[in-house]
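On clarity, I found the account of how folds are encoded harder to follow than it need be. Since the whole study asks how a given chain folds, the encoding of that fold should be made plain. For illustration, here is how one protein appears when written out as sequence plus structure tokens:

:::
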Amino acid sequence: MKNIISIIPARGGSKEIPKKNIKLLAGKPLIEYSISVSLKSKYIDRTIVSTDDKEIEKIAKDLGAEVILRPESLATDKTPMEPVLIHLVNHLSEKENYNCDAIVLLQPTCPIREVKDVDSAVKTFLDNNADSVVSVFEDYYYSWFGEINNDGSFEPKYDSQNRTRRQEIKPKYHEIGSIYIMTKELLLSEKCRIGGKIYPYVIDKIKAIDIDEEFTFWLIEQMIKYKKINL
């Protein structure tokens, strides 16, 4: 495995939080947290931001990242992630004659990750000769779920009179968008970031917060300000 790049996708449009990717989080643009861990990783050779926005481009370059602009057609609310990754990989191959072996996807909306998380995930990928790695967190409470009926009542989907104790539940693992790693071959052949021989990277649950609304942005900011996490 010779060439490992990171891709940090950051489009300009954001409805829930305007200019989310460069909004200041504890005094730093949100995107800086992902750029910083990528630049500090001992495995990642190139840190590249994919964006359609000139303001994001300038900030990313000032922070030390490379930037490849993507077309507007790949920057809509409904654009899947895989075409964005493929566009960047093909750009490197066609315009620079540069061929990466693996891609580390770091989404800016999951800023609570440390360099040790990225490097441990890459090490898992390399040590196991994996096709892909996905970050997950452990969850014991998947058994205690229900549905809300049309009349507003709650319908448990478990035996509420014989509730299993948490200590007796075998945990399941939830995918979180903090870290994905994939071979270039998998991405181009399957057009998917997860597939082939998949390995998990189990991340602390506190790091599994994904910023998708103002509340989660505020929550992470408080955690950083009051030193509940060190970034």
User: Anything to note?
Assistant: The first helix runs from residue 30 to 40. The first strand starts at residue 4 and ends at 9. The domain at 4-135+175-225 is CATH 3.90.550.10 (Spore Coat Polysaccharide Biosynthesis Protein SpsA; Chain A). The chain is about 30% helix and 25% strand.
